[in-house]
Design a protein that fits this description.
globular
């Protein structure tokens, strides 16, 4: 699932930050069941998101999960079923259309055409129908919740299964969620929210021509395969290639065999949650400490079976197994002062700190030349050649201090100032810190005397805000030049293993920053039965982190990152909601309209950036100045 908030503001990571029960993550929905979610709020403008600082440039999505409530135990069961299908597919030629086009080209080139005798023996294969299928999706969710005067609890279990629309693909997930909160005294409470999940995914190739080791795309080969190929031969084996007819039939892989012979499974075992305590020191002063964990163990096992005409596909066969461990810990502390003075003034002051540490490591093993390819023998010990063991480890950390002052006068005039200072290990020792301020003001016009008795306008608020946000999503160690092993150098008649420069670093990297201006109106009519939101925004990403192109003579090392780009996004958002009630029936109808414009103002040296690789030297997109 891809989520974008107010467009694309950088050539780097554009994913929003998710805050689940106070814990930040970039990946929320692979462990959470949608049924466990109580509310979702989206923070779009800089003043609202700035309190989350370092990773909030792409917007923030706040998720609150369901909790228990005081009362007798309540049991809830929810289920849904559905069917997914591919649609609006590119129209492909059938047998007769292909033969007609082939013969036209053959006549023009002076080649032999396909005669009627041969046409009568040819199949008419629709490769879309062969590789796609109606795919079932099902979800079951069971929960029990309740509580006493001092303690509330919730326990839920979820099973989700989604067949893939391409043959031999699919995903399923089991998850358990617990939520417990206890009031130890009138001023002290503790609680925990824990999500435990296990998922399994059957993967088929999806990366074009297979560049990067992820396997060629089944859909790509369905495009290449002509309709006059059959799926199976007389022995019910996959037909791959007949060299004597290659000039007529084409030589692309059989996409059905390509999909069915994929043996690639990915598993994830994840624990995500937090433990917290709230201490009301005095009536207006509260301290909260929140400790979060996100522990994930990811396993991959992929066997590349040798098959096809004269064993041309995956020759030699191979098995790759890997296990990756990701451990992210978050510790956040806040002190909040919230005081109302005489029902006229309200002052809210928040001070806080946040520490995030991430440690990841992976080990992988590879073996080739398996004499027997049956599934029961696909283990590393059965490979006979090119056995190899690899591993890596990387860490990153983020430390932040922040503060917010919010003032409200007579529930009519609002002002808020936020300041956050983030330090990231990804920028080395020269520029690890960034400071990100924000401010906003608001005016509740409907609370003014001249609108207080209006029967038509029930809510009217004007909003203005400006703020800066940061982005550190460039990967780890970009400030350092990295050396990698795995090469061999000749010394006379001897060969020695050694290291080579894999990546150029830049010690002067600093934060990518985004400045955003926002103006908005909230309008409620007829006792808020009709509610309208209207926003205009202008956000400018500066010091964008881009990689400088290198000449071919510089070698194969990855280029350095530089702060040398600028992107502007402008747009407006309109939302209209109508809610009403007829007897016991409540209903809500909404309309959302958005428009935004994205423009690249500067790139390093004015050099365009290709992306979306299709083949060697062929790309789907080009980012350049002025567009």
């Amino acid at each position: 699932m891809v989520v974008r908030i107010r467009g694309i503001g950088t050539i780097n990571d554009n994913d929003p930050l998710y805050i689940v029960d106070g814990i930040p993550t970039k990946d929320a929905f692979n462990t959470l069941s949608p049924v466990d979610i109580e509310t979702i709020s989206i923070l779009k403008d800089a003043s609202a998101a700035s309190i989350y600082g370092a990773r909030a440039a792409n917007g923030v999505i706040l998720i609150t999960t369901k909790k228990g409530a005081t009362g007798a135990p309540r049991i809830n069961y929810t289920a849904y079923f559905g069917v997914q299908s591919a649609y609006n597919l590119t129209e492909m030629t059938n047998r007769d259309q292909y033969v007609e086009l082939y013969n036209e080209a053959a006549i023009a080139d002076g080649r032999t055409t396909i005669d009627q005798e041969m046409i009568d023996t040819l199949p008419d294969t629709d490769w879309w129908e062969e590789i796609f299928r109606p795919a079932l999706i099902t979800n079951h969710h069971l929960s029990i919740s309740g509580g006493s005067e001092n303690t509330n609890y919730l326990l839920s279990g979820n099973y989700f299964k989604q067949d893939g629309i391409i043959l031999n693909s699919g995903h399923d997930r089991y998850s358990i969620k617990t939520s417990i909160s206890t009031a130890i005294s009138t001023r002290l409470s503790i609680g925990t929210n824990i999500n435990i999940s296990r998922s399994s995914t059957d993967i088929v190739g999806n990366s074009g021509d297979g560049y990067g080791g992820n396997g060629g795309s089944v859909v790509r080969y369905a495009f290449f395969r002509t309709p006059i190929w059959s799926v199976y031969d007389n022995n019910n084996e996959y037909i791959d290639y007949y060299p004597q007819y290659g000039h007529i039939f084409g030589d692309g892989y059989n996409p059905v065999g390509f999909a069915e012979k994929y043996d690639w499974k990915r598993t994830e075992n994840r624990v995500f949650g937090n433990a917290f305590f709230n201490w009301q020191i005095i009536d207006a002063l509260t301290f909260k400490s929140d400790y979060g964990i996100d522990h994930n163990v990811i396993g991959n096992k992929r066997f590349n079976e040798n098959w096809g005409y004269k064993g041309r596909i995956n020759n030699p066969n191979s098995l790759v197994e890997s296990t990756e461990f990701i451990d992210i810990q978050t510790w956040k502390n806040t002190l909040t002062y919230d005081k109302n003075f005489g029902g006229i003034h309200n002052l809210n002051i928040l001070l806080g700190s946040e520490l995030i540490r991430s440690k990841s490591h992976e080990h992988s093993s590879t073996a080739h030349d398996f004499p027997d390819q049956i599934p029961n023998l696909r283990y590393l010990s059965n490979g006979t050649a090119n056995e190899r063991v690899d591993g890596w480890q990387e860490n990153w950390a983020l430390f932040s201090v922040f503060g917010r002052v919010a003032y409200k006068f007579k529930d009519k005039y609002f002002a808020e100032v936020v300041l956050r200072r983030d330090g990231s290990s990804r920028f080395g020792s020269n520029n690890p810190y960034g400071v990100f301020p924000a401010a906003s003001v608001g005016w509740r016009i409907d609370n003014e005397p001249f609108l207080a008795n209006s029967n038509f306008i029930s809510h009217l608020k004007l909003r203005l805000s400006v703020g800066q946000l940061g982005n550190q999503e460039i990967g780890n160690y970009s400030f350092a030049s990295l050396m990698t092993s795995g090469v061999y150098y000749p010394f006379g008649t001897n060969v020695a293993s050694g290291y080579y420069l894999d990546k150029h670093g830049n010690e002067n990297l600093k934060w990518e920053s985004q400045t955003q201006y926002d103006a908005g109106i909230d309008l409620g009519l007829l006792n808020n039965k009709i509610f309208i939101y209207l926003d205009y925004y202008n956000k400018l990403t500066d010091n964008m982190l881009v990689q400088a192109p290198l000449p071919p003579s510089s070698g194969s090392a990855e280029a350095s990152f530089f702060n040398a780009g600028k992107v502007q996004n402008t747009g407006f958002e309109f939302e209209l909601n109508y809610k009403n009630q007829i007897s016991k029936l409540k209903y809500n109808v909404g309309l959302i309209f958005t428009h935004f414009s994205n423009k690249v103002l500067e790139l390093y040296g004015g050099n365009p950036i290709p992306a979306g690789r299709i083949d060697n030297g062929v790309y789907a997109t080009l980012t350049e100045e002025g567009h």
